[in-house]
């Protein structure tokens, strides 16, 4: 119900809107920004070339597809790169590279379902309700996951924050 | 607690994930355009060829007629303007009486006469 095929323009719009967040999400599986970018790119190229029927919430489908592709890439022997500032997924607006790398590492250490909801909420701009719909989880569960994730991230990033 | 979360969300917003490279433009666009161009060229050639053929046909028929009736139809009797299919069609639609007149005139100048002394058909008929 509500399934539809996305046009090329819609796929491109989805890519512009969620591409960066999806790279951040993929990076927690492959821990290599370039590989994460490749994974996201490949998923969207596939969406452009094939007429894939999308579920009601295309973002949810794309997150699932990126997750699967990233896990495949990891299984296929992509190396886990050491954290390198040049390959960092995140850029801090204030130029704090160390904080950016710490965030990347901290996100990678979160349980997958917590990491997913944080990325969706902060960098994809989804509401918790939308994240719940995308992950097919109850809203309360998603809200708890989000709160736990924020606590852990806050703890890791405390040294870099001026409170 | 909620305020703390809001502040921390704002702080997290200071980190921007890298933007993946742009998706390539699909090559389909170029293929579609080249196909359209090829189709347009083919249609133009076909139209040109059929127009040329329509215009050439009456002249060709005339040539055949001249060959067939050379002994009977003199140069003066030959029509000055070949009967064009386009003209005849136009007359048939617009002016049927005019078409009859044109065909009658063409018949006199193009078909062999039977009422002359030297008419081949008349000679054959006598034999």
Question: What labels would you give this structure?
Answer:
heterodimer, A: 163 residues, mainly alpha, Arc Repressor Mutant, subunit A, two-stranded antiparallel ribbon, 7 helices, 67% helix, 4% strand, B: 127 residues, 5 helices
What can you tell me about this protein's structure?
The complex is a heterodimer of chains A (163) and B (127). By secondary structure, chain A is mainly alpha-helical. Chain A folds into two domains: 1-80; 92-163, Winged helix-like DNA-binding domain superfamily/Winged helix DNA-binding domain (Arc Repressor Mutant, subunit A, Orthogonal Bundle). In chain A, 67% of the residues lie in helices and 4% in strands. Chain A has a two-stranded antiparallel ribbon. In chain A, helix 1 (8-30) packs across helix 4 and helix 1 crosses helix 5. Chain A is globular. Chain B is an all-alpha fold and 127 residues long. Chain B has a domain at 42-127. In chain B, helix 3 packs antiparallel against helix 4 (96-110). The relative contact order of chain B is 0.06. At the A-B interface, helix 1, helix 2, strand 3, helix 4 and helix 5 of A face helix 1 and strand 1 of B. Strand 3 (90-92) of chain A pairs antiparallel with strand 1 (15-17) of chain B, so a sheet runs across the interface.
Write a compact overview of the structure shown.
The complex is a heterodimer of chains A (163) and B (127). With 163 residues, chain A is mainly alpha-helical.
List the helices and strands of chain A in order. EHHEHEHHHH
Overall tally of domains of chain A: 2
Low-confidence stretches of chain B: none
For the biggest sheet of chain A, the summary is:
2 strands, antiparallel
- Measured distance between first and last alpha carbons of chain A: 47 Å
Largest interface: A-B, 39 and 19 residues
For the CA atoms, what is the radius of gyration of chain B?
38 Å
- Note the overall shape of chain B: rod-shaped
Overall mean confidence score, pLDDT of chain A: 86
| β-strand amount of chain A | under 5%
Number of helices of chain A: 7
What integer is the average pLDDT of chain B? 74
Q: Would you identify the regions of chain A where 5 or more consecutive residues have pLDDT less than 50? A: none
How would you classify the helix and strand content of chain B by structural class? mainly alpha
Strand content of chain B: under 5%
- How helix-rich are the residues of chain A, as a percent range? 55-70%
C-alpha Rg of chain A, in Å? Answer: 16 Å
Give the terminus-to-terminus CA distance of chain B: 128 Å
Note the quaternary state here.
heterodimer
Q: What is the string of SSEs of chain B from the N terminus onward? A: HEHHHH
């Amino acid at each position: 119900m509500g399934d539809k095929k996305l046009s090329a323009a819609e796929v491109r719009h989805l890519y512009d809107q969620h591409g960066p967040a999806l790279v951040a999400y993929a990076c927690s599986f492959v821990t290599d920004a370039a590989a994460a970018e490749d994974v996201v790119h490949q998923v969207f190229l596939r969406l452009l070339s094939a007429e894939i029927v999308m579920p009601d919430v295309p973002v949810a489908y794309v997150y699932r597809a990126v997750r699967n592709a990233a896990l495949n890439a990891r299984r296929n022997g992509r190396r886990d790169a050491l954290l390198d500032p040049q390959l960092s997924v995140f850029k801090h607006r204030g130029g704090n590279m160390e904080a950016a790398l710490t965030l990347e590492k901290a996100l990678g250490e979160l349980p997958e379902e917590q990491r997913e909801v944080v990325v969706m909420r902060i960098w994809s701009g989804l509401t918790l309700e939308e994240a719940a719909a995308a992950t097919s989880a109850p809203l309360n569960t998603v809200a708890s996951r989000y709160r736990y994730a924020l606590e852990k991230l806050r703890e890791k990033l405390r040294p870099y924050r001026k409170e | 607690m909620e305020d703390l979360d809001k502040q921390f969300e704002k702080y997290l917003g200071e980190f921007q994930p890298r933007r993946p490279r742009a998706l390539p433009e699909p090559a389909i666009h170029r293929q579609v355009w080249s196909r359209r161009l090829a189709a347009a060229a083919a249609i133009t050639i076909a139209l040109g060829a059929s127009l040329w053929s329509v215009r050439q046909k009456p002249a060709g028929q005339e040539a055949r007629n001249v060959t067939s009736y050379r002994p009977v139809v003199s140069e003066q009797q030959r029509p000055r303007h070949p009967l064009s299919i386009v003209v005849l069609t136009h007359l048939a639609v617009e002016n049927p009486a005019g078409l009859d007149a044109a065909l009658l005139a063409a018949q006199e100048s193009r078909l062999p006469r039977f009422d002359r002394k030297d008419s081949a058909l008349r000679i054959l008929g006598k034999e």
